[in-house]
UniProtKB/TrEMBL annotation:
GO terms for cellular component: vacuolar membrane. This is Amino acid transporter transmembrane domain-containing protein. It comes from the Eukaryota. The lineage of its organism: Eukaryota, Sar, Stramenopiles, Oomycota, Saprolegniomycetes. Residues 13-85 form the Amino acid transporter transmembrane domain.
């Protein structure tokens, strides 16, 4: 007898990966729009996107001046704040 193509465990893993890739926040956007309305939900979405872009730019600037040994967020915290940051 042939092994099934997708088992229950495979489907659970696929669902978990889907949620990790797309994020629970993204998956709940329709509910957020339904609860608070188009204007407030769009404003919140734009604000969160702007904060995310700003944070990414800040981390990129720090990584440009960090030594080549900084490879993880833990290393980055140690570079910025010493042993307290690790």
């Amino acid at each position: 007898m042939a092994k099934p193509f997708l088992t229950g465990e495979d489907l659970k893993m696929c669902f978990s990966l889907f949620c990790c890739v797309y994020g629970i926040g993204t998956l709940s956007m329709p509910a957020n729009y339904a609860k608070v309305g188009y204007t407030w939900a769009t404003a919140a979405l734009v604000f969160m996107a702007a904060v995310n872009i700003y944070g990414t730019i800040c981390i990129s600037k720090v990584l440009l001046v960090a030594p080549k040994s900084v490879r993880t967020f833990s290393d980055l915290g140690h570079f910025c704040m010493g042993s307290f940051g690790r």
